[in-house]
Write a structure and sequence with these properties.
10 helices; single chain; mainly alpha
């Protein structure tokens, strides 16, 4: 292997078959996560571990999850557009630093072994659980960031999104509102940024042989429906229940990834 990206190769370990309950779990989990990701963020804290539970190695689960992320964010972006929310002009200034960061993050994380990735992901889940319990502060008042600060912040967010993805929606909402956007527009921009990040990161994982296509496509089916529903839903009364389930699932699955049980 040279200094550049390795030539695309097939993975002998690609999952060839799935149990019916694994497929059902991925579709349901993808739908649930698609709604969460569109409304706020953090759905990948559920879907990446679900892929691991379905037999996909850790770093390949991270890559496979991006197929569903792309499907759900495209569906959500189209729905926001049809609903009249206009975020594209606001997304343009932050796309370059985000995309550069996404490439750096995805190349770096894809070189980790599966065991190393699962440990990193399990550790990252800890602050994400805290974000699930208490959302970042969304501020549309006060001083706005300068263009330089915006570029630095979103480059850093891009690195994280390219590497891990999980929980980046919550971070994006906090940063976008601090950058001067109202929460509705920020939600649309967040979705557009996730589309762009995934378009950059997914080919890196594919070239590294880190996508298991069968579970990825099954998950993407649920993700797509969830993204569409999330863009149409306010999810006010059910938000507390969603966050409670997400926290419990995150705690249990983080413990599994860190080897605390089973």
């Amino acid at each position: 292997m040279g200094d550049g990206l390795p030539v695309c190769r097939s993975r002998a370990a690609t999952v060839a078959a799935m149990e019916w309950w694994e497929a059902l779990l991925l579709v349901a989990g993808g739908g649930f996560a698609g709604v969460i990701n569109t409304v706020a963020g953090g759905g990948s804290t559920i879907t990446v571990p679900l892929l691991v539970l379905a037999g996909v190695p850790g770093n390949s689960a991270n890559g496979s999850n991006r197929v569903g992320i792309l499907a759900s964010t495209v569906a959500a972006a189209a729905s926001f557009h049809r609903l009249g929310v206009k975020g594209l002009t606001h997304a343009a200034p932050i796309l370059l630093p985000v995309l550069l960061g996404s490439f750096v993050g995805s190349v770096g994380i894809s070189r980790l072994t599966d065991d190393a990735f699962e440990t990193v992901f399990g550790l990252v889940m800890i602050p994400l659980i805290l974000l699930s319990i208490r959302k970042p502060e969304f501020r549309t008042d006060g001083a706005q960031w300068s263009p330089v600060v915006v570029a630095i912040v979103f480059f850093g967010i891009g690195i994280y999104a390219g590497a891990i993805q999980a929980g980046v929606g919550l971070v994006l909402l906090a940063a976008l509102t601090r950058a001067g956007l109202d929460l509705v527009t920020a939600n649309h921009v967040k979705v557009l940024v996730n589309v762009a990040v995934t378009v950059v990161a997914l080919p890196v994982f594919i070239m590294q042989g880190k996508v298991d296509w069968l579970p990825a496509l099954v998950l993407a089916g649920g993700f797509t429906v969830g993204g569409w529903l999330g863009a149409h839903a306010t999810v006010k009364g059910g938000e507390r229940l969603i966050r409670t389930v997400m926290v419990l699932a995150s705690v249990a699955l983080a413990a599994k990834l860190l080897g605390l049980f089973g």
